[in-house]
Design brief:
Blueprint lengths: L7 H51 L4 H26 L4 H24 L9 H6 L5 H13 L5 E3 L4 H6 L20 E5 L5 H13 L3 E6 L3 E6 L5
Antiparallel strand pairs: 1-2, 2-4, 3-4
Helix pairs in contact: 1-2, 1-5, 2-3, 3-5
């Protein structure tokens, strides 16, 4: 009688591994596709905001030149996206140029819109909305980008005066970036964190940090996220 024995447990494990392999490959492929599209979606924000911060703080190019360069580069990138997408859809050269130019113009129009307007639903008070244009232009575009991704975001504070600190029962911070700086703009804003999930608050803080801004979660009169173009105060 043959002494050959088959280990059915090992055989079942091997078959299970063989069946699970395609599922893992599908999951990895899906993860790669999602990562690719997420990177494409995030790249314009990186170019617009981190590029603007780098040009302003790192290269010292000045407020409007820094924003203009980053805005033009972002508009060009989105135009290339539109060119590629229309080409994949079978559009001819003339149609591709038309679509690319249209998207280029829309991107610049969005930046111009972000510089002058913020909805009342996204500010704590009319006072903050009035102060919006006193904020540094790159901060205005950054807050508008946040609202585009998170429509429930609320700016709770922007510009301040020494008397505002005294009214809150705090000693005036002479170096506060909420004061108008040498370039004529406020370099800080505060975002509401109360009533929002901690995951969302941390994600917002991480996003601003990755885009080149200084962030600080702290308590003055209330818990909030402080975002600035300089060192946090």
């Amino acid at each position: 009688m043959s002494q050959l024995r088959i280990d059915y447990a090992d055989l079942r494990r091997a078959m299970a591994r063989a069946r699970s392999l395609p599922q893992r490959e599908v999951a990895l492929h899906a993860a790669r596709v999602l990562a690719f599209w997420a990177a494409l979606a995030g790249l314009p924000f990186v170019l617009l905001l981190r590029g603007g911060v780098l040009a302003y703080r790192g290269w010292g190019l000045g407020t409007w030149l820094s924003l203009a360069l980053s805005a033009l580069a972002t508009a060009w990138l989105l135009g290339m996206y539109a060119w590629w997408a229309s080409q994949r859809l079978g559009a001819g050269p003339a149609a591709r140029r038309l679509v690319a130019r249209g998207v280029f113009g829309v991107a610049l129009a969005y930046v111009a819109y972000a510089l002058v307007f913020i909805a009342s639903a996204n500010v704590k008070s009319d006072r903050v909305r009035t102060e919006y244009r006193s904020m540094h232009p790159i901060l205005r575009v950054a807050s508008s980008a946040l609202i585009l991704v998170d429509p429930a975001a609320i700016v709770t504070d922007a510009g301040r005066m020494p008397r505002d600190y005294r009214r809150m029962g705090l000693a005036p911070a002479e170096a506060s970036l909420h004061f108008v700086q040498a370039d004529g703009y406020v370099h800080a804003l505060d975002l509401r964190t109360e009533g929002r999930s901690e995951v969302r608050n941390r994600a917002t803080q991480l996003a601003f940090w990755m885009l080149g801004f200084h962030t600080l979660r702290h308590v003055g009169t209330a818990d909030h996220l402080h975002v600035s173009l300089g060192m946090p105060d």
